[in-house]
Amino acid sequence: MSSTVIVIIVAVVVLLALAVIAGVVLNRRRRINLTEKPSVEEKPVKGGYQTGSGISFTQGGPKTAAPPDEVVEAEPEEVEAAVEAGPEVIPAEPTIVDEVAPTEPPAPIEEIDPTEGRLERLRGRLSRSRSAFGQGLLGLLGAGDLDEDSWTEVEDTLLLADLGAATTTEIVERLRTELVARGVRTSDQARTLLREVLVDALHPEMDRAVRALPHEDNGTKFPAVVLVTGVNGTGKTTTTGKLARVLVADGRTVMLGAADTFRAAAVEQLATWAERVGAEVVRGKEGADPAAVAFDSVKRGVETGVDAVLVDTAGRLHTKTGLMDELGKVKRVVEKQTKVDEVLLVLDATTGQNGLTQARVFAEVVDITGIVLTKLDGTAKGGIVFQVQRELGVPVKLVGLGEGADDLAPFEPGAFVDALLN
Ligand SMILES: Nc1nc2c(ncn2[C@@H]2O[C@H](COP(=O)(O)OP(=O)(O)OP(=O)(O)O)[C@@H](O)[C@H]2O)c(=O)[nH]1
């Protein structure tokens, strides 16, 4: 073979290699990168809920995630019993490990939608909240001097949107003072004032990053442990799956723990989510002790060196004692191995006051570190966000805006209020 032919072959090979590399780079760019904030702030589209950034994550571990004091004290014997798989409820240890799904599932791993597509789809999802809220308020405030009847109407609008009595009073008082102090006369001025007051009431200074990144302890990598809790039906399993997708899209590895063993279908549901993103799932048999499954998922997560273990916990609200036993035990048992970094409480926004009652009970049982408000797309009462944060003193970190796999968004007070008012 002549040297010219060899040179041509080498040149063709180099060109092909460059084309492959360019293809891979372009493909990766199309995937969402949730840690990067867009450099240019997009103007919110009328009526849409657009967030300026992706869901942000932060490191777990003792340095950044010191949780408040635990409500429930660990009982060593009880913890041991759960870990060693007591005969009546906990399946034998090997059973759980045997049921770990294969690392490489046969089904193809899904591409996760790029950010642009996600924001596009979330537009207008809050339209029902908007019609009940922003338009009415702006109509009233834009009129200038308000008589007592008009102020009562403002109050009623806020109450109807589920903001709760305390937040409503606070907001009305501030509006009354500022309206006079600033001499508000036009609807634009009213809009600016209303936006400011509502955003402030949502405490934009709260840290809303999800503690789902690993930390190191004495040179050993520990995954972040996220417990996802809430009453069955609120969207707990769905949220766990959606969060796993966000992490995977961000280049992270996750282990899912199907500790909601109350309903076999819930375990299957989580296994499907895991399969779709190529993650492992650890599960127990129906009726298995949730604490044992949670323990095994974290153990497996540490062994395999994943970045985060997301545990879908049981959320039966039969009695407070029952819940306390179950959830308190899950947390204590997991903490035999590593700290629980995040306890997310999933609340269904459509349940209004009922959701708040649930929140109170859960908060008494376990230290909630973040709230996920689901089904905000299906309610005219977006105001529940204000109330639940106020009640628990814990930030709403994520919101569910649909049944689709990528319909989970970070909660941003400014973007949320814009969606209500525009
Ligand atoms: N519209 C809407 N539906 C949602 C949202 N989040 C979850 N859902 C739906 O709510 C239903 C219940 O969700 P699950 O995730 O199964 O609820 P769960 O709390 O895990 O309940 P169990 O499976 O019984 O443990 C499902 O049909 C979800 O698709 C949301 O943000 N918007």
Quaternary organisation of the protein chains: single chain
The first-to-last residue Cα distance is: 71 Å
Instruction: Name the bound molecules.
Output: guanosine-5'-triphosphate
* Named CATH architecture of the largest domain: 3-Layer(aba) Sandwich
Query: Sheet bearing the most strands, described?
Result: 8 strands, mixed
Structural class of the helices, strands and pairings?
alpha/beta
> Any idea of the CATH topology of the largest domain?
Rossmann fold
The structural domain count equals: 2
Question: Can you identify the CATH class of the largest domain?
Answer: Alpha Beta
Strand content: 5-15%
Number of helices: 15
Number of strands: 12
Mean pLDDT: 77
- Strand order, main sheet: write it out: 7-6-8-5-9-10-11-12
Low-confidence stretches: 23-47, 63-106, 115-120
Name of the CATH superfamily of the largest domain: P-loop containing nucleotide triphosphate hydrolases
Q: Report Rg.
A: 24 Å
Characterise this structure.
Part of the signal recognition particle protein translocation system, which is composed of SRP and FtsY. This protein is 47% helix and 13% strand. With 422 residues, the chain is α/β, with parallel strands linked by helices. The chain has 2 domains: 57-117 and 207-421, Rossmann fold, CATH 3.40.50.300; 127-201, Four Helix Bundle (Hemerythrin (Met), subunit A). The strands form 3 sheets. It has an 8-stranded mixed sheet, with helices on both faces. A two-stranded parallel ribbon has the order 1-2. The longest helix is centred in the N-terminal third of the chain and has 28 residues, at 3-30. The relative contact order is 0.18.
